[in-house]
């Protein structure tokens, strides 16, 4: 099956006009017609119904079904090209969400440097949900992802590296600052300063709110953790952050949540299930998983 034929067909499905497709690919209209005829002959079915009187085309049921497969085939071809290019470069492209990149990755970077991996890594920063989509579409080889549930997707292989708790963050001047823990229901009237929806935190916060039937006001949202810490330190409000984002030297107080069954911040290494790992990528997987086993004592 000709790749160009698939590209023409996909574009024709989108545009519904032979002329537009021909102009887009800088070919003649008969070339597009011939490509469609080749596909119909190879598949043994009619894909398109041509309405000459209205200069329109309609897709048969087979045509609509084939468009899905053509889209998937072109997507897989694009991923294959990117993976082969990565092999030539001998680099590992890996995605890092800001929190994991700022607070978890530095702790393992010295070990990666010792294994001669750090200099062979191209790092891309984005939110976990965005990175997951880019991983599926082949825009990167691997990603360290944050989540509140284990990753369960047939297209992705994942290794759980760490489980971290969420904490309530308050100012040293706040009335709760002397406490070690707090129940979420106690915070129903407290103003929260939260991370934006690009992060996993809002999902965990929403889940805890529903579970405890407690809905505190959120007065401000931002992508910047340092802004949140600064506002909390000034006692403008309190916040809800994973414990890795609040080291002991932070200018705020971290309280444990007393609620049972509270969400966890899960850090996982993920890559596409149909991706054959290069020796360099396999080494990275082995090093990260073994390092976490040593840390957890398992």
UniProtKB/TrEMBL annotation:
**Cellular-component GO terms for this entry:** cytosol
GO MF, one term, reads: DNA-binding transcription factor activity
Domain HTH lysR-type: start-end pairs: 1-60
Question: What is the superkingdom listed in this entry's lineage?
Answer: Bacteria
Question: What SUPFAM superfamilies does the entry give?
Answer: Periplasmic binding protein-like II, Winged helix' DNA-binding domain
What keywords are assigned to this protein? Answer: DNA-binding, Transcription, Transcription regulation
Give the family, as the similarity comment puts it: Belongs to the LysR transcriptional regulatory family.
Query: This chain belongs to which protein, by name?
Result: Transcriptional regulator, LysR family
Organism equals Heyndrickxia coagulans 36D1
């Amino acid at each position: 099956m000709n790749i160009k034929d698939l590209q023409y067909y996909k574009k024709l499905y989108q545009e519904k006009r032979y002329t537009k497709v021909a102009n887009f690919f800088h070919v003649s209209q008969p070339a597009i017609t011939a490509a469609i005829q080749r596909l119909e002959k190879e598949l043994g079915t009619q894909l398109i119904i041509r309405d000459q009187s209205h200069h329109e085309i309609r897709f048969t049921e087979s045509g609509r079904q084939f468009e899905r497969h053509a889209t998937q085939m072109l997507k897989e071809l694009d991923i294959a090209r990117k993976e082969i290019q990565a092999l030539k470069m001998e680099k590992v492209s890996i995605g890092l969400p800001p929190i994991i990149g700022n607070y978890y990755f530095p702790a393992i970077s010295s070990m990666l440097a010792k294994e001669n991996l750090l200099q062979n890594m191209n790092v891309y920063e984005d939110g976990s949900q965005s990175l997951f989509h880019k991983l599926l579409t082949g825009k990167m080889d691997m990603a360290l992802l944050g989540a509140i549930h284990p990753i369960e997707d047939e297209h992705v292989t994942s290794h759980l590296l760490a489980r971290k708790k969420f904490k309530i963050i308050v100012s040293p001047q706040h009335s709760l600052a002397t406490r070690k823990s707090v129940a979420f229901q106690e915070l129903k009237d407290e103003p929260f300063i939260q991370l934006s929806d690009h992060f996993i935190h809002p999902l965990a916060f929403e889940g805890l709110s529903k579970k405890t039937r407690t809905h505190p006001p959120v007065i401000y949202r931002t992508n910047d953790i340092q802004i949140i810490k600064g506002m909390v330190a000034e006692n403008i409000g309190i916040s809800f952050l994973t414990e890795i984002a609040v080291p002991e030297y932070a200018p705020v107080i971290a309280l444990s949540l007393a609620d049972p069954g509270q969400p966890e911040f899960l850090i996982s290494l993920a890559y596409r299930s149909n991706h054959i790992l290069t020796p360099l990528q396999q080494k990275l997987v082995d090093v990260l998983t073994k390092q976490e086993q040593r840390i957890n004592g398992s």
